[in-house]
């Protein structure tokens, strides 16, 4: 009997060793495309161990699975926590603000991104380890194709340098897309778009278009999306500091305004309605970004609000931007971008503005929209 007990113990120990070895092997495989590094390996091992131990619980979490399943890029293997190399940089101080002249934090603890508040090398190093790619979505319909050349040329100089970038250009005039030389790992895709007669319909339709194409195409090709107006140009570096779950820009016309002056939709009948005593910032729809999943959810909610308004025969005061602001009031962004990310030189250069990354190209609204 004693002998059987001993054999049983030996078999159990062997089984346990085999199990540990298989977890270890799985962790090594996950890291095989990168040079071996003990700390990264350790992190991968911990992550493999955690997913093994808790797999049953995650599988039962229906609500989060439903959201996570809507796109391929969401199902990427959980990557190990980035391991940074030795870096020399200006160290933070607990009792000293890097930008005392501006607000750098929202009440829900989202950073407000201003030049001088972050160290780009740290952010970029972390991001690089994920091997992510970025889609830049923009609309150039009818006469707006005239902005493409300057937009793309300046994007090649300043936008997400060193990363994989896909330009997704919604247009009715693909022949107008200029033939410019792109840097390595950067691609242009022309996406067919309807040249609605009314310019307002072109604006409203942006959300439905983003929703549909995210589901059909973007989710299979990129991890993050950045959506921008086309009548703009890059004027300084825009990099991974703008990426997060959802990052939206404070509108340059309202960063200092009284809340009651924000031009939210105030008619209760509209789906974009925001009461006078609510609202955090007035956000611009000219530059925002997020993970594929979060951008999809935002676009879908806005498109649904726009459709409901249409059925009621109403159009929100600032078109899709009103629905965008409504969504953001109840789904707080994870990062808020300062007006550095959508500036207009007609507003001069206030002392707090250390950088103008993305600026408006002058245009005559009447001429170009008709
Ligand atoms: C503001 C917002 C814009 C949008 C709009 C809503 C800023 C800087 N921009 O822009 O994001 O929310 O208000 O009213 O605050 N487009 C075409 N073809 C057209 C018309 C528009 O391609 O015929 C596209 C194009 O990408 C353009 C964008 O829609 O950049 C926004 O249109 P806009 O620039 O004419 O609107 P604007 O300046 O009032």
Structure write-up:
Mean pLDDT is 87; it is low at 28-71. The termini are far apart. The chain is of the alpha/beta class and 370 residues long. 37% of the residues lie in helices and 14% in strands. The strands form two sheets. It has an eight-stranded mixed beta sheet. A two-stranded antiparallel sheet has the order 6-10. The protein is built from nine helices and ten strands. It has helices at 2-30, 38-59, 62-68, 120-128, 148-158, 199-221, 292-312, 320-330, 365-369, and strands at residues 112-113, 133-140, 164-171, 186-192, 224-228, 232-234, 246-250, 283-291, 335-337, 358-360. Strand 2, helix 5 and strand 3 form a beta-alpha-beta unit. The structure holds uridine-diphosphate-N-acetylgalactosamine (UD2). Uridine-diphosphate-N-acetylgalactosamine binds next to strand 2, helix 6, strand 8 and helix 8.
Write a brief structural summary.
This protein has 370 residues and is an alpha/beta fold. The chain has helices at 2-30, 38-59, 62-68, 120-128, 148-158, 199-221, 292-312, 320-330, 365-369; strands spanning 112-113, 133-140, 164-171, 186-192, 224-228, 232-234, 246-250, 283-291, 335-337, 358-360. The strands form two sheets. It has an eight-stranded mixed β-sheet.
Total helices: the number is 9
Uncertain residue segments: 28-71
Structure ligands: uridine-diphosphate-N-acetylgalactosamine
Proportion in β-strands: 5-15%
Main sheet summary: 8 strands, mixed
Name the strands of the widest sheet in spatial order.
1-9-7-8-5-2-3-4
- SSE class: alpha/beta
Q: Could you tell me how far the N terminus lies from the C terminus, measured between alpha carbons in angstroms?
A: 94 Å
Summed over residues and divided by their number, the pLDDT gives a mean of 87
Q: What is the succession of H and E elements? A: HHHEHEHEEHEEEEHHEEH
Helix content: 25-40%
Give me the count of strands: 10
